[in-house]
Write a structure and sequence with these properties.
With 484 residues, this protein is an alpha/beta fold. The protein contains 15 helices and 11 strands. Helix 8 links the parallel strand 2 and strand 3. The protein binds pyridoxal-5'-phosphate. The site of pyridoxal-5'-phosphate (PLP) has 14 residues, from helix 6.
Length: 484
C-alpha cells in the first residue's frame, strides 16, 4: 500500500494520487485557517528563499510528501498572502476556493484549446461562459469574447486589430520603410501602464501614446482628446485608437464613455475600454452606469481574476470586430489544418498565442457555484465595506479622503494637525504605510496624486469581513498618533 515515490518509468500511480491528493486538500484547508495568523506581507529577506534551496535538481526522485514538507517549511514564509482577508493592496486577487478547485481540475484533465479538435469542451465552454458574463453585463451579442491571461495581453490585441483595420499591409511589410505615417494612441493620464507597454510591444513607439489630462475627478477630458487628435492630424500623424478606462488603477475613476465614443466615431478611432477591475461591478444594477456607452466600443476587457472570485489568471476580452483581429493574426501551418475548420472556432486564431489553458472552466464553475446573485451580494458587501472605511476617514480630522469612492477603493492620507502640504507630509504618510504593513495584519499600497503621497485601501478579497476593515482603521489611527 505504501507505494510512494516515482517508479522507474511512468507517472504517479492512481493509488498514490488518492493518498497525496487527500493530503494536499487537507493541507490547503488547514492553510486557509492557520495562515490568518501569519503576516499578510512576507517577511523574508531578498535571496533567502533561493539560499534555502539546493543549486541543482536531485538525481533521485523524492516522495511527494517530503516535497510538500519543504514547500511548507521554505516557501510558505515567502508567500505574500493574496488570499488573506487583510489584503487591501493594489487590487486584491479573485481567489475563491471553488475557483481554485476548478483550476486543479483544469490542469488534471490537461486540455489545450488551440484548435477546436484539441478540446471541443474547452473551446465551446469558453463561448458559453463569456456569453453568460456578457449577458450579465447587459451588453450586445455583437461582442465576441475570448479569454486571455491578462488585460495587458488584451490591449495588445485590441491595438493590433485597430492597426490591421487602418493599415493591413503592416502584417506583411512591417512598420518601417513604406511611407506610413506614425500612429497615435490616446488614453487618460490615469490609464494603466499596460497601454504604454502595448504601444512599445507593437512598435508604435512609446512617445506616440498621448496621455490626455483628466478633470478634477480624474476622468479623461473628451474635449482635450478631440483637440489632441485634431492637432496630431494636422501634424501628419495617423490617429489610431483611444483607450478609455472604467476604474482607473490609482483612484478607480470612470472615463466618460459616451463622450469619448462620440469623439472616436467622429474621428474614426478604435475605442478600447479597459474595465479590468471595475467592469465586474457593472453586473450590479446600481453600478451599471459605469459602462454606459460601452456598447459603442470596438473592444473591452474585464478581469474576473480581479474582482469576480476567479483565481489568477483570466481576463475576458470582447470585440465587435473579432474577424479583424483574426485577420491580423490568423496563420495555419499544414500540421494544424483540420477538416472541421470552417464550422468551428479555433481559438489559436484569436491571438498570437498558440497553446492556451482551459481557463473557461474556473469562470464557469465560479458563476455556477455562487450564481450571479451570490456574486452580486459579495460585490455589494465590498462596496459597503469601502464606504464604511471612507466614512471613518471623512469623520476623522487627522485624515482626509483625496478621491471619490465609486467602487471599493478608498484613496486617503493622514493629515496631522500643523503639518503643511509638501515633502514632510508625504514622508509622514510613507512612514505610516510602512509601519502599517510591518504590523503584518494588513497590506495596503500607495499611489501619487498631484504630488501627494496617497494610501489606497482596496477591498476585493472574498474572505474580507468588517472585522479586518475595522482592524485596519484602528491600527492606522494608532500608528498615526504614535508617529506624530
Ligand atoms: C490591473 C489592471 C490592468 C492590468 O491587468 P493585468 O490583467 O494584470 O494585465 C490593466 N488595466 C487596469 C485598469 C488595471 O487595473
Amino acid at each position: 500500500m505504501k507505494n510512494r515515490g516515482a517508479g522507474p518509468v511512468g507517472d504517479m500511480s492512481p493509488d498514490e494520487l488518492r493518498e497525496e491528493g487527500r493530503r494536499l486538500v487537507e493541507w490547503v484547508a488547514g492553510y486557509l485557517q492557520w495562515s490568518l495568523k501569519n503576516p499578510v506581507l512576507s517577511r523574508v529577506r531578498p535571496g533567502a528563499i533561493r539560499a534555502a534551496l539546493p543549486a541543482a535538481a536531485p538525481e533521485e526522485g523524492e516522495p511527494f510528501e517530503r516535497i510538500l514538507a519543504d514547500f511548507e517549511r521554505i516557501l510558505v514564509p515567502g508567500l505574500t498572502q493574496w488570499n488573506h482577508p487583510g489584503y487591501f493592496a493594489y487590487f486584491p486577487c479573485g481567489f475563491s476556493t471553488p475557483g481554485a478547485l476548478a483550476d486543479f481540475l483544469s490542469t488534471a484533465v490537461s486540455q489545450q484549446a488551440m484548435l477546436w479538435r484539441t478540446s471541443p469542451a474547452a473551446t465551446e465552454l469558453e463561448d458559453v461562459a463569456l456569453a453568460w458574463l456578457r449577458r450579465a453585463l447587459g451588453l450586445p451579442d455583437a461582442f465576441e469574447g475570448v479569454i486571455y491571461d491578462t488585460a495587458s495581453t488584451a490591449v495588445v490585441h485590441a491595438l493590433a486589430a485597430a492597426r490591421h483595420e487602418k493599415a493591413p499591409e503592416v502584417r506583411t511589410r512591417g512598420l518601417a520603410g513604406h511611407g506610413l505615417p506614425a500612429f497615435r494612441v490616446y488614453c487618460s493620464e490615469h490609464a494603466h501602464s499596460s497601454v504604454d507597454k502595448a504601444a512599445i510591444t507593437l512598435g508604435l513607439g512609446h512617445e506616440n501614446l498621448r496621455r490626455i489630462p483628466a478633470d478634477g475627478e480624474f476622468r479623461m477630458r473628451p474635449d482635450l482628446l478631440a483637440a489632441a487628435v485634431d492637432e496630431d492630424r494636422r501634424a501628419g500623424y495617423l490617429p489610431l485608437a483611444a483607450v478609455a478606462t472604467v476604474g482607473t488603477t490609482s483612484v478607480t475613476s470612470v472615463d466618460p464613455l459616451p463622450a469619448i465614443a462620440e469623439v472616436c466615431a467622429r474621428q474614426g478611432l478604435w475605442l478600447h475600454v479597459d474595465a479590468a477591475y471595475a467592469g465586474a461591478a457593472a453586473i450590479l444594477p446600481e453600478c451599471r452606469w459605469a459602462i454606459e456607452g460601452m456598447e459603442r466600443a470596438d473592444s473591452f476587457v474585464l478581469n474576473p481574476h480581479k474582482w469576480m472570485f476567479t483565481p489568477f489568471d483570466l481576463s475576458a476580452f470582447y470585440c465587435r470586430k473579432m474577424d479583424l483581429l483574426r485577420a491580423a493574426f490568423q496563420l495555419t501551418p499544414e500540421y494544424l489544418k483540420t477538416s472541421e475548420a470552417p464550422e468551428v472556432r479555433n481559438l489559436m486564431d484569436t491571438g498570437f498565442q498558440l497553446g492556451r489553458r482551459f481557463r473557461a472552466l474556473k469562470l464557469w464553475v465560479v458563476l455556477r457555484y455562487f450564481g450571479l446573485e451570490g456574486i452580486r451580494a459579495r460585490l455589494r458587501e465590498h462596496l459597503r465595506l469601502a464606504r464604511l472605511f471612507a466614512g471613518w476617514v471623512d469623520a476623522d480630522p487627522g485624515f482626509e479622503r483625496v478621491a471619490p469612492v465609486p467602487f471599493s477603493v478608498v484613496c486617503f492620507r493622514a493629515v496631522p494637525r500643523g503639518m503643511g502640504e509638501g515633502a514632510s507630509l508625504n514622508a509622514f504618510n510613507e512612514r505610516l504605510l510602512a509601519d502599517l504593513n510591518d504590523s503584518g495584519e494588513v497590506f495596503l499600497s500607495h499611489t501619487s496624486l498631484g504630488g501627494r503621497y496617497v494610501l489606497r485601501f482596496a477591498v476585493g478579497n472574498i474572505r474580507t469581513t468588517e472585522t479586518e476593515v475595522r482592524g485596519a482603521w484602528d491600527r492606522l489611527r494608532d500608528l498615526a498618533r504614535a508617529l506624530r
